């Protein structure tokens, strides 16, 4: 089902197939106004795609909400702070960073 961009809706940008599987589990519980995007292979790519593509779309479609679904491991302990600092103030109330703890 296609999303109506003029109505409240949610996009999920997963880091990889594991996080996409988690997000797909939520689709059955929604009213069809949720879409899981293709994985972008790595948290740096999630951040890049968010900054380059999704910020523009969030500003264009005021009913859009976006979940950034990423793995958190010990390699980058400040990853959440890094993501939070990249979210512009004018869209921060519609962007959610969810972390998946592998293992």
UniProtKB/TrEMBL annotation:
Protein name per Swiss-Prot or TrEMBL: Uncharacterized protein
Organism of this sequence: Aromatoleum anaerobium
Domain of life: Bacteria
